[in-house]
Recover the amino acids of this structure.
């Protein structure tokens, strides 16, 4: 009997319309009425989607000071390179012989990341930063299992940490122990000492931390942990602040994840795409997910023979399009990667100094690539941090991260990145100062914002109590 595909192609003189679908599908599943799609021209469809895209705010439209997310400009040449036929049409199951260009790129990216982090081995498999965290903590867990130290069930997490840190550790079965920050916004080493025992597997840290402050006692923390037989995990979300100046290995870390979609300028708005490579020291390299890309002197290969591997953490070998973009950015920047970090730190300190006094600055320390203000003063004048964020939306500026980290009340977390000019920074500063003045003079007017966006101010209380999660209301 001819297949439906043969028949629909006109085999035996049967056209698509004449094909008896009921021979191949249960008749009760066949549509009895037309699908009801609108009859539109290509031009009308194009205009519809263009109008939708115009409603979105993006880095091409304005400033994006989203703290801890590093929303820097993504060079368009990277998009062209990632779309090259040899990259975008390559199937992940093609043989090594047919994938030499892609494998070479991955291998060279691995080697570059090793150099930047100081680590000894890298996996490109994880698909995002949090996925990299999970992979790293799986490696930590496997490490102690191979040593027979199955009692190590605790992971220490600073109170200023990204929320994914405790979540990733918890998913691996660890018990989360919080360590408090001191008056300088850094890990309190005395508090840390009191938490250490032989059940502690690791500490998860970001350096600089989420307050944008460099952990001055990181070497002391490293010694405390290693003397306890524990490991140190480095959350690389803030690597954009130190790239080329220092590295996690020099600080004493054992496991690192990097957010390629932040530090190395690849898109990640709207939840994806992303990439979270994990880098480890020599003693952990045999635990990495397989395969690792290697060079045998003649060709590039996917090496599956990793003795104590935690196994695959993803179906294939990494989010390849993001890897292409990241490697292109690294090649394009070269030694200027170091300058990118320097400019990010300069920009953040410039804005901080201009805004402190008008807004509260809970930790008045030199910052790295980001800093955290508090809208506590403005809150007492009638407008919360959320109100400030909404007012910013009327000024061609994406709001910064608000209400994080949790240790700062009414937190406003600002990260300008290195890709913004002084003119843009000055415009943002002027807007923030203007909003503070408006709150003093007429807070009710500020509470009407946003007014210039496609969707005006919404009733958040009603939305929380009566969420409508369907496309069409009943």
């Amino acid at each position: 009997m001819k297949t439906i595909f043969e028949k629909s192609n006109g085999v035996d003189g049967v056209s698509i319309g004449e094909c008896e679908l009921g021979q191949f599908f249960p008749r009760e599943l066949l549509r009895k009425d037309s699908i009801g799609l609108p009859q539109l021209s290509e031009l009308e469809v194009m205009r519809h989607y263009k109008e939708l895209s115009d409603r979105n705010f993006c880095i091409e439209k304005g400033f994006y000071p989203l703290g801890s997310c590093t929303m820097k400009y993504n060079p368009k040449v990277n998009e062209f390179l990632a779309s090259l036929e040899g990259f975008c049409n390559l199937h992940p199951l093609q043989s090594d012989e047919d994938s030499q260009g892609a494998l070479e790129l991955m291998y060279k990216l691995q080697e570059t990341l090793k150099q930047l982090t100081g680590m000894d081995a890298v996996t490109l498999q994880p698909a995002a930063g949090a996925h990299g965290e999970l992979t790293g903590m799986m490696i930590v867990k496997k490490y102690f299992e191979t040593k027979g130290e199955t009692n190590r069930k605790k992971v220490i997490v600073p109170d200023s940490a990204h929320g994914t840190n405790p979540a990733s550790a918890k998913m691996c079965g660890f018990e989360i122990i919080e360590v408090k920050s001191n008056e300088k916004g850094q890990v309190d080493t005395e508090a840390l000492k009191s938490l250490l025992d032989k059940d502690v597997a690791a500490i998860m840290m970001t350096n600089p931390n989420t307050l944008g402050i460099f952990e001055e006692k990181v070497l002391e923390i490293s010694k405390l942990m290693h003397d306890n037989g524990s490991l140190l995990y480095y959350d690389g979300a803030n690597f954009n602040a130190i790239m080329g100046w220092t590295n996690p290995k020099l600080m004493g870390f054992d496991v690192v994840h990097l957010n390629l979609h932040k530090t190395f300028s690849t898109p990640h708005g709207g939840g994806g795409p992303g990439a979270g490579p994990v880098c480890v020291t020599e003693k952990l390299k045999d635990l990495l997910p397989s395969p690792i890309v290697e060079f045998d002197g003649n060709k590039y290969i996917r090496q599956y023979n990793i003795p104590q591997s935690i196994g695959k953490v993803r179906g294939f070998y990494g989010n390849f399009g993001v890897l292409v973009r990241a490697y292109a950015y690294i090649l394009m920047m070269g030694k200027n990667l170091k300058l990118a970090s320097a400019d990010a730190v300069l920009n953040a300190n410039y804005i901080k100094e201009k805004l402190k006094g008008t807004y509260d600055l809970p930790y008045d320390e030199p910052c790295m690539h980001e800093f955290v203000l508090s809208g506590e003063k403005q809150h007492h004048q009638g407008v919360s941090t959320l109100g400030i964020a909404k007012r910013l939306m009327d000024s061609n500026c994406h709001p910064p991260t608000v209400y994080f980290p949790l240790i700062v009340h009414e937190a406003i977390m600002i990260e300008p990145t290195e890709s913004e000019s002084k003119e843009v920074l000055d415009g943002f500063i002027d807007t923030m100062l203007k909003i503070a003045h408006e709150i003093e003079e007429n807070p009710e007017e500020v509470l009407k914002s946003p007014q210039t966006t496609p969707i005006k101010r919404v009733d958040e209380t009603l939305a929380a109590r009566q969420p409508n999660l369907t496309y069409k209301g009943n």
Q: What stands out?
A: Residues 90-333 form a domain with the Aspartate Aminotransferase; domain 2 fold (CATH 3.40.640.10).
